[in-house]
Amino acid sequence: MNRRQFFIALAVLAILAAAGAAVVLSDRSAWTSADSRAGQKAIAGLRLSEVAEIAITDPRGELHLARGETGWSVRERAGFAADTDRIAALLVKLAELKIVQSEPLPESQRVRLELLEPKGKVAGAGTLIELKDAKGGSLGRLLLGKKIVKSSPVASLSRGEAEATGRYLVAGGEAATLLAVGEPLAEVESSPERWLVKDLLRADGAKSISSSKDGRERWSVARETESADWKFSGSKEKPDLQKATDLASSLGWVNLVDVVADPAKDDTGLDHAIVIKADTFDGLSYTLRVGKQAGNNYYVRVAVAGEPSKTRTPAKGEKAEDKAKNDKEFEERRKKLVEKMEREKKLERWTYLVAKSGLDPLLRDRAGLMPEKKKSAKKT
């Protein structure tokens, strides 16, 4: 290439660069004018302290979360306590939700973008979320549509699901305007069981556990201290160490899967339930009535009784300078136990579904708690 050709090529590149810059500036100007709402909040002026109800409707059903004097509850589950942390996280997202892009929404695109009102199981129906105040007034309304998906090289290589990075929606009464936000809001769904507080019972420090059915005892085990071995009551026989430990562990961490909204409609089998009773070293008594199996769960009712000890027995040889400290720790622990008992006693009004895997150790018969007999080696 000679000098003249070089300068001609340079001139051509300069012209192309100028033309490209003009196109970019033109596109940027058009984008700005078309997205004048970019950066604005999807629900303007939302005050979280005013939200008293969250209603979610999708093709699968409806959900109503209500805030009362004792906190949030799930209406579709007979007013059982809702997961406050999950609700708080959702409300913060909604309050901070910002618009990334806005444009007119043609009627012909509603089905493809899943932005039809969720009135039954219709193709293209979205998810409607409404926030209301204590008087039932609307604080915000969003119709959530299709998620905005961004595929990643890792997902492509592993054939995994692409990551949702945002969502299309319609806000308030602006049915003709399509908005895009940078948050998928995947947790907005009408399944009541996903919004429940899953902690049920924590029967820690059991000193005796028994099982009975129709008034007849199946087995009973006890131990003298929390570090002692379990023994069958009224017998010199001992249960398998691991199986006995599983009994106490199962009672120390009982979680629910779901709350039965109307037990009268289900054949729960609780009229002929297996009754598990546990007395703790803290003076509390827990009773679980386990009914029929439903899929991978059992129908369960619970009851709590007793009272934490009001006095502390000083340890042998306890020094005077340690007494005040130990008394204070005892009172603090007792206060927590009383609060725990009061919360758990409120659980007696509902019927629950509890996972089979968590209850199986408690449903063994006496023979199932015995140590397994070792097989004798065959002579060769």
Structure commentary:
The longest helix is centred in the N-terminal third of the chain and has 32 residues, at 3-34. It is built from seven helices and 18 strands. The protein has a nine-stranded antiparallel sheet, with no helix packed on it. A hairpin with a 2-residue loop joins strand 11 (206-213) and strand 12 (216-222). Mean pLDDT is 87; it is low at 16-33. The chain folds into two domains: 48-195; 199-313 and 330-369, no CATH class. 26% of the residues lie in helices and 31% in strands.
Count of separate DSSP helical elements: 7
Output the strand order for the largest sheet.
Answer: 4-3-2-1-6-7-8-9-5
Task: Please report the distance between the alpha carbons of the first and last residues.
Answer: 93 Å
Subunit organisation of the chains: single chain
Radius of gyration: 31 Å
Beta percentage is 25-35%
Shape type: elongated
Strand-pairing-aware structural class? alpha+beta
> Strand tally, please?
18
| Whole-number mean pLDDT | 87
Low-confidence stretches: 16-33
Could you describe the largest sheet, including whether it forms a barrel? 9 strands, antiparallel
Topology overview:
Elements: H1 3-34, E1 53-58, E2 61-68, E3 71-74, E4 80-81, H2 84-96, E5 99-104, E6 127-132, E7 138-150, H3 153-158, E8 163-171, E9 177-181, E10 199-201, E11 206-213, E12 216-222, E13 231-232, H4 241-252, E14 254-259, E15 274-280, E16 284-294, E17 297-306, H5 320-345, E18 352-355, H6 356-359, H7 366-369
Antiparallel strand pairs: 1-2, 1-6, 2-3, 3-4, 5-9, 6-7, 7-8, 8-9, 10-14, 11-12, 11-15, 12-13, 14-18, 15-16, 16-17, 17-18
